[in-house]
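Thread title: Can someone regenerate the structure for this chain?

I was given the following input by a collaborator and told the matching structure tokens would be attached. They weren't. Posting the sequence so someone can regenerate them.
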Amino acid sequence: MSAELVREWVKKAEEDWVALSRLRRGGVAEVADVITFHAQQCGEKYLKALIQKEGREPPRTHHLPTLLDLLVPSYPDLEALRVSCEGLTPYAILYRYPGGEAGQEDAEEAVRHAEKLRAVLRKSLGI
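Best answer:
Regenerated them for you:
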């Protein structure tokens, strides 16, 4: 395990968390697409931090259930995050390009999922 890489993943995850938190204060509706993206990214990076802590190289994927599958054998309680992982995964790309727009409900749901992942994974990481 590289403690430095784990710290870097956590730092990046927290940058996404701070970004979405600041954006929410200014009004969700106008930036819902960006909030959903940062929520997904926050969860993804926390999952990758824990994979890194396990001494494995995180795969290059935005599919959170795939990342979760790598962790559940060592951390069976993380199975409780499956619904949040599935809920966040589409936000990696769904609203990043023309053709769709997130609404306030999407953003609020994404934030709830990210909050859950963040809380549980920080505990698993010992922070």
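Helices lie at 3-25, 32-53, 64-71, 82-88, 104-125.
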